[in-house]
Give the backbone structure.
Amino acid sequence: MPTPDRRPSSPAQNPSPTKKRSSARKPLLFGLVVALAAGLLGLVSYRATAPDEPASDTPAAATTGGPDPDVRRELAELARRDAGDKLAQGRTDAPVVLIEYADFQCGYCGKFARDTEPELIKRYVEDGTLRIEWRNFPIFGEASEAAARASWAAGRQDRFWAFHRAAYAEGAKEKGFGKAHLRALAQQADVKDLDRFARDTDSAAATAAVREDREQAYGIGATSTPSFLINGLPVAGAQPTAVFTQAIEDAAAEEANVGSAGDPAK
């Protein structure tokens, strides 16, 4: 089972003392949920990839049982559901929100982007079940920071997801994320105004947006990429697609049950 890429230890990357105090409880909560879910996630991952296993033997995903509902509720509230969010796709009222914390230099993030995310979009975003919200979580130095800012800049021209696909294409990160390559990726993504793209990439607004995303990740105790929240349930690493589909379907069923419980007609 693949493990996520872990960030290097660097005091400069830690959030401010104020931010740390305001979210002092979240690292413990995130760690608790991960600890409770880890064993079952590992079993799901193994069963999903083991040979000659009938589909009916696949156990329920880690959304069922275990984690304290208050913990998951607090983490689920990190979903922005902002119609103007350029780094998100899917209905703002979708019953399930997947938040992804990722770095463009992370190999497993690229694996998820190429192998799993397109299927999730086709199966769940397009039918209104799922919303995906991206959070820039650059942890591998200046090139990661530059790529994160560039992705935000592409989003200003509604081309974030096209830039995302280009940056995670096979071999893209091996070319580095210098200014020339970032401009080439923007061209691939059909960013119309490349001069504006360059200005936006180097802007204070881009730096602030990336910092906000990264500090949210630190605030919940995320230490590696990719890290995910699916309606508040943490999932670490580029797990097999079956882990994500099961978690999404379980979360959607939970939301449907909550809705029907409050409707006397059902």
Q: What stands out?
A: The longest strand covers residues 96-102.
